[in-house]
Amino acid sequence: MKRQSLYFTAPGCVSIHQEELPPPDPGQVVVQTILSAISPGSELLFYRGQQPPDIPIDASIPALQHNTGYPMKYGYSLVGRVVELGSAVDPVWQDRIVFGFHPHESHFTSMPGDLIPLPPGTSLEDAVFLPNMETAVNLAMDGAPLLGENVVVFGQGVVGLLTAAMLARFPLNRLVTLDRFGNRRQASIEMGAHSSLDPEDDQQLNAILPAGADLTYELSGSPAALDQAIAATGYAGRVVVGSWYGDKQVHLDLGGSFHRSRIRLLSSQVSTIAPGLSARWTKERRFDVTWQMLQAIHPARLITHSMPLQMADAAYQQLDQEPDKTIQIIFTYET
Length: 335
Fold this sequence. Notes:
Blueprint (H helix, E strand, L loop, with lengths): L1 E9 L2 E8 L8 E9 L2 H9 L29 E8 L11 E4 L6 E4 L4 E3 L6 H4 L2 H14 L6 E5 L3 H10 L6 E5 L3 H10 L3 E3 L4 H7 L4 E6 L4 H9 L1 E9 L16 H4 L2 E4 L15 H15 L5 E6 L3 H10 L6 E5 L3
Parallel strand pairs: 8-9, 8-11, 9-10, 11-12, 12-13, 14-15
Antiparallel strand pairs: 1-2, 3-4, 3-6, 3-15, 4-5, 5-7
């Protein structure tokens, strides 16, 4: 069987390779991909060559445990159909619609335990947002917003928008988001933010929250935004850093009010569960909540472009060069 696989081959370059797909081992299945989603934040780091060198792409995902050098496969959000079973696999897996944390390609082999069957009532287009929605759930858990708090979110890419949609379900006093691009600010309001501002308009944010935020999220992927996030946070507030900056350096002004502010900086990343919660929370429990949020929020409305995999080069150029016109791009596959 032949498959089509997307490779990042150099900064600014992607290509589609045709490869031979080996038959499944006795305990494996073959999945035929229906949809896959570009995760704009992390995938643009690889597209631009800004990823840290010589580390596993993601040690928690079997398909991404190789290092970050070119050429490489990447991506971790696809939905497909099980089309072939190894001799030792339970026949119940035949024709199941499943989610896989796997790079962009038309077919792949997997252990059934690494796949997640879609719950009844979940659309394919909503399901492909599973990793970013899980990240939003994790961000909400790590930030632990309280009744009546003022919350600010820097960055309204896909993760930022899903986080805003999640936070909008809490009984907050005020939810304010910031992004450079008007299309994302409009989407943020539609997701439930009370206000969505241009991050260069400091005076407007100060007017809305003169005492600063109780809880601030930095999800923009821009190192400069972390300084802004700290400045926007009030005395003894929390700043949750969910951005992955890759090899971009962060320069912070900590010589002024920060020294006496008692602000807490918290790192948040979805591969693990915070130690304070892990006695009661497992990844399976978090996935259950994530599926519920996918069905409640319907993130498929954030899809701005749907392209066949063969147009991958145009898709990444669109994300890189015209972010003001793009939120979520998905790839489609011939079936």
